[in-house]
Amino acid sequence: MKILITGGTGLIGRHLIARLLTLSHQITVLTRDPQRAQQKLGTHVTTLTTLTSCGSLDAFDAVFNLAGEPIADKRWTDEQKERLCHSRWDVTERLSQLIRQGDDPPKVLISGSATGFYGNQDQILVTEDEPPVPEFTHTLCQRWEELALSAQSPRTRVCLSRTGVVLAADGGILGKLLPLFKLGLGGPIGNGRQFLSWIHIDDMVNALIFLLNTDGLNGPFNLVAPYPVHNEQFAATLGEALHRPALMRAPAAAVKLMMGEGATLMLGGQRAVPKRLEEAGFTFLYKELKDALADIAKDE
Fold first, then answer.
1. Whole-prediction pTM value?
2. Based on the number of CB atoms within 10 Å of its own CB, is 240 exposed (0-12), middle (13-18) or buried (19 or more)?
3. What is the pLDDT, as a whole number, of residue 145?
4. Based on CB atoms within 10 Å of each CB, which residue in 130, 142, 154, 191 is the most buried?
């Protein structure tokens, strides 16, 4: 297939592209910095610097839309929240517009979203049918999804990947936590009872390719492992995988002071499960957190 990918240099994008290349797909990456993108992704990847001049996306069989500024890297000022939204909304709106106006558009658009769509759900078991709690992450994801779904037609199906915390050694949450935990400075956050919905990077990539290749699938999918865990259990399991103590609890007040409104990412959560993905026949390599972290920690 000829596949266009936005957000290709991010954690998920890098791993997805590496796998797609082994499957002999032709990859084009939308990027502002082609040289940096090819340094990260390899010279077998074609780059595209803008969608402005594109009349359609008819040259592509599929699109993965993974673009978006990292949500937890900076404090949520009003200005930063605008950046978080528009880094997702603007490119999604343009992709959908180009798909709609094509004569022979891509057969599938797989567009990013997050379990943050549901807002903080406390201890509720969250399937794709769970009503959301209105807060910033829901507002961001709801509009993001609406823009993607506007591309849907009898010619193009749209899948929404409501992604949880992606576990990989080379980025994401573990990129930040591994150095601390290796020093014995890791531990739970707040009271540790907030749920964390996670997924191993290999399952994340496999699930995206499953959505790509399975005709008839559309709409939202929770891309998370079947067994979410409390933050306290996550910290203990990571410490065990690294053979380090995990007792350095981060007080909720300190997290709120450091992150402001964005502290909800650490102190809240969703007990999300992959109901629609499993019903469609997807099989996970890593259902249990212990196995996922052991795999990642083996090379650390």
1. 0.96
2. middle
3. 98
4. 130
Helix runs in 158-261, H state only: 172-182, 201-213, 231-242, 252-259
Structure tokens at 40: 């990260």
Residues (pLDDT < 50) of the chain are none
Q: Which amino acid is at 79?
A: E
Compute the distance between CA of residue 13 and CA of residue 32 in angstroms, rounded to an integer. 15
For the beta carbon of residue 22, count every other beta carbon within 10 angstroms. 8
Question: What residue has token string 């090819």?
Answer: 38
- Grouping H, G, I as helix, E, B as strand and the rest as coil, residue 259 is helix
Residue 167: strand pairing partners = 172, 200
**Which residues, at least 6 apart from 89, have a Cβ–Cβ distance to it below 8 Å?**
143, 144, 147
CA pair distance 139, 50, nearest whole angstrom: 26
Q: With the CA atoms of 140, 144, 145 and 148 taken in that order, what torsion angle do they form, in degrees rounded to the nearest 10?
A: 180
The span from the CA of 280 to the CA of 128, in Å, is: 13
Cα–Cα distance, 222 to 278 (Å, whole number):
10
- CA angle, 43 as apex, 37 and 49 as ends, to 5°? 40
Cα 171 to the center of its chain, rounded Å: 12
- Residue whose structure tokens are 């990260």: 40
With CA atoms as reference, report the closest residue to 231 among 208, 202, 255.
255
CA nearest neighbour of 24 among 57, 6, 1: 1
Per-residue confidence (pLDDT) for residue 54, from 0 to 100: 82
- Rounded to whole angstroms, the Cα distance separating 144 from 93 reads 8
